[in-house]
Amino acid sequence: MSTAKTQEYTIQGKPAASGITIGKAVIINSESRTITPTSIKKREVDDHKERFLESKKNLIAELEEMSGGLQDSQTADIIDTQKQIIQDPEIEKSVFDIIENKLLSADFAVYQTYCTFIERLKESGSELFRQRIIDLEDIRDRFIAEVCGQKNVKSIKKGSIIVTREISPTDLVTYYEDGASGLVMEKGGTTAHAAIIAKSLGMPCIVNAKRATKEAVKNEIIILDANEGMMVLRPSDETVKDYKVKLKAQKKGSKLKCSNDFETTDGVPFKLMANIEFEAELNNASKSGSQGVGLLRTEGLLFGKRVRNSPDEQQEFYEHIVEGIEGPVTIRLFDIGGDKNARRPHKETNPFLGWRGIRLLLDEKKLLRSQLQAILTVAGKNPGRVKILVPMVSVIDEVREIRNEIEKVQGALLSSGVDIDENIPLGLMVEVPSVALSAYQFAREIDFMSIGSNDLTQYTLAVDRGNDRIHTLFQHYHPSVLKLIKMTVDGAKKADVEVSVCGELAGDEIGAACLFGFGIKELSMVPSSVPKINELLCSKSAEEFIKLADHAIELSSSEELEQLYGEWK
Ligand SMILES: C=C(OP(=O)(O)O)C(=O)O
C-alpha cells in the first residue's frame, strides 16, 4: 500500500550494481505470507480458476523434476506428500468456492484455503501433524509465488524497474529477458545472489531499500540511481531532465572493453576471468575482454521455469557456454543450499551451515552423476578447456569421494565410446575456514583452488551474507578474511597449486589490489568489472601491490584498509 506522498522523495539503499535507469515501477511482493483479499469481476472467474490450475500443474511438474534427480528416501517421501497435498480435491474445491462464490482473486483463494487447513492442524495439537504444517506452509507460499509470478511476468514492460523484497536469480533473469532495466530490493546485502546476477547483467541495482515495495506505486515512473544507492519516487520534471542528461553521459562513458594488456607496469602477467550463470550473461562476458570463465555457476539449471537438469539438456548448455567464449571455462558443480534453495523440499534451521554444495551432491548421486556426465562429455570434445570446481568443501574426504565419482563416470563414458579429457583439472572452492587453515593438505589432493570470498567472509565472520539487519558486519576487507586468503596462498604454493579468487572481492578495486599483492594472478568477477580491474592492475608495479598487501594484513579493521588504500592509490 502506498503512502499519500505526492512530492518527489528518495528512498536510500545500498549500491549493489552501478548505473542509472528511469522506468515504470513493477512491484513484486515475494513475501507472500499475508495476502489481502482482492475482489474480481464475474467475467474474471474463469481466468483466476485457470491461473490456479496452471500453477498447480507447474508445481507438480517441478516436484516431479525434483524427485527425478533425488535419491534419498526421506526426500522422496516429502515430495510425495507435497504432491498429494497439492492434488487434494478438498483444496481445489475450497479454492474454486472462494473464487466463484466470494469473487476473490486466485492468490487470496489459495492463501485462505491453505491457512484454514493449517489452522485446523494446529488446533489438533498433534505432534504428528507438525511436518504436515511445514509442508502446507511451504506449498502455500510457493503456490502464491507461482500464481502471482504468472501475473507479474505478463505485466513487465521494456524498461521497467523491479521493486521487490527479494528475488530469485532465475526470476531476475526472466525479467531481464523481458526487458527489465533495474532492480530495487528491500532485503539483502550486496553479495546476495540476485544482486550479483544483476551486476553481471549490467542492471543497476540497490539493496536494503527499506519500504521500497510499500512506497513505490505500480506503473509510476521512478528513477533508480544505483551509483548513489537510491531511488527517486514521484520525480519532478526537473529531476527527470537532470537524470536524462546523466543517462546520456552514462551511455557515452560505459566502457566494456579492456584497454590495456594484462600485465603490471613491470611486466608481471595476470588473468581476469568472468563469473556467469546464465546464457544471457555470455555476451557481456566476451565483450568485457575477460580471458575465459573463471566461475560458471550452474544452480540456475535447477530452479524456477528454467529447469534443464537432464544430462542432454545440461550438455547443450555447457557446450553453448564453451563455444560462446574464448579461453578456459571453470564449471562449478551444483551449489544448492544456503540462499540457493528456493525449491528444495527440506526446511533447515541453518541452511547456510547445512545440506549444501558437495554435501548434498554426495548424497544425491543421481543428480551428481548426471552433471558429471554432461560436463565430462563437453570436456572430451574440448580438451584443455574445461575445469571442474567443487563447492562447499569442508573435509578432505569430500574431495576424495568426488574424484572417485569423476573416475567412475569417465570409465562409463569411455566404455560407451565417448571421448574424455583424461587430465581435466579438478579444483575446490575455498569458502569454509577449515580449508584455508589446512590449505596445504587440501591443495595436495587437487589441481587448483578458487577462493569464494563471499562465503569465506560469511563463514569467517559468522554473518549471513543476505541478512539486511547485519549487512554492515559483512566486511570482506576484514583482516581475518585477508589472513585466511594469505594462508590459502601460502599453503597452495607449498603444494605447487594455483589459486584464483572468484568472489566479489576479486572485482573490487581494494580487494583486487590486495589479492594481487598476495600473489594471486587470476581473478574472476562479474564481466562489467573486468575493464576497471584491468586498468588498476596495469597501473602499478607488482612490488607496489605487494607492499600494499603486506601492510593490509597487519591492520585491525576494514576501515583502516579503506584509508590505507586511499593513501596508497
Ligand atoms: C563465488 C562465490 O560463490 P557464490 O555463488 O555463493 O557467490 C563465493 O562464495 O564467493
Concise description?
This protein is α/β, with parallel strands linked by helices and 569 residues long. The chain contains 22 helices and 16 strands.
Explain the overall architecture.
48% of the residues lie in helices and 13% in strands. It has 569 residues and is an alpha/beta fold. Helix 1 (45-69) runs antiparallel to helix 2 (73-87), helix 2 packs across helix 5 and helix 6 packs parallel to helix 7 (193-201). The radius of gyration is 25 Å and the shape is globular. 48% of the residues are buried. The model is unreliable at 150-154 (pLDDT under 50). The structure holds phosphoenolpyruvate. Phosphoenolpyruvate (PEP) binds at residues 196, 295, 297, 335, 431, 452-455, 502-503.
Helix content: 40-55%
Radius of gyration: 25 Å
Beta-strand percentage range? 5-15%
Envelope shape = globular
Alpha-carbon distance between the two ends: 47 Å
Tell me which ligands are bound: phosphoenolpyruvate
Total helix count? 22
Number of strands: 16
Multimeric status of the protein: single chain
Strand order of the largest sheet: 1-8-7-3-4-5-6-2
- Low-pLDDT parts are 150-154
Biggest sheet: strands, sense, closure?
A: 8 strands, mixed
Structural class by helix and strand composition: alpha/beta
Mean pLDDT: 88
Cofactor: Mg(2+)
Subcellular location: Cytoplasm
Protein name: Phosphoenolpyruvate-protein phosphotransferase
Family: Belongs to the PEP-utilizing enzyme family.
